[in-house]
Every structure is written in structure tokens, then in C-alpha cells.
Amino acid sequence: MTAKITIDQHHELMLEWDWSLNKEFDPSTVTQGSDQKVAWVCRKDHDLKRGSYDQCHACRMPITEQEKQHQHYQEGLSCHHCFGTLDTEQKQRFAERQKQISLGKQRGEEHIGNAAQEATERRRAEKRAEKEAARNRPPEPEL
Known about the structure:
The protein is an all-alpha fold. The protein has a domain at 1-51. Helix content is 34%, strand content 3%. It is built from 3 helices and 2 strands. It has helices spanning 11-14, 88-107, 113-136; strands at 54-55, 62-63. Strands 1-2 form a two-stranded antiparallel sheet. The protein is flat, with a radius of gyration of 21 Å.
């Protein structure tokens, strides 16, 4: 199983971690690839705040909560910026990705990054153990 990479393992990132705004977070629990929103301190002394925008996961454009109400917004699939510009292959790819995100959320797991890889490895090991147990089980007597 691969080791979980966390923010606190990256010294250069910890220099920019905003301790005052991230009081509810422990950097050792924020994993690479996580969707958690945290605050950072700009090395150029800019006062950066957590944004209120989300991102269209199809075209990567920033979108507001209001824009998510637009008729062309479909979570993970399109927004008003990219609706009508995606080809069939892209739509299928984005739909599959969104399906995996939804399945991961249902299981309480991340869908990307080390946490997802660990969950996949754990499920595979459980499945192998179930198959092995079934092979080693004595046959049921015939009636």
C-alpha cells in the first residue's frame, strides 16, 4: 500500500499555510489531491482569502453558486461556458468521471489521489480474501 502524501510533508507548502484561517484543519490530514478548501499566505504579502467560486470540472472555468443554477450546468459535465463545445468522447469521459466521484462519495471515499488508491487496494484485498475463503469452504452437502 502506498503512503498517504499530506500537505505537512511539503516544507515549501507549509511556509504558505495560513494557520489563523485554517484553525479547523490539521495539515497532516489534508492529502494531496483532496478537494478540501484551505487558506494560504502569499509570499508577496497579498491578503488572499478563500474564494467563493467553484470550478466546472469539464472546462475548468470558475463558476458561482448562481451559475450552477443555469440550465446548461450539469455537475461534472458542463456549464454555461462550455455547453455545446464538448465532443461525444469528452462527454462520455466526463460522465464516467462524475459517476466515479458519486460512487466514491456514497462510500465515503476520495475518488482521486492517494486516499482513492488506498481504498481501491483495500477493496481488492477484501475481494481476494472473499474469493479465497469461498475456495476453501467445504462443499455443501447434496440433498
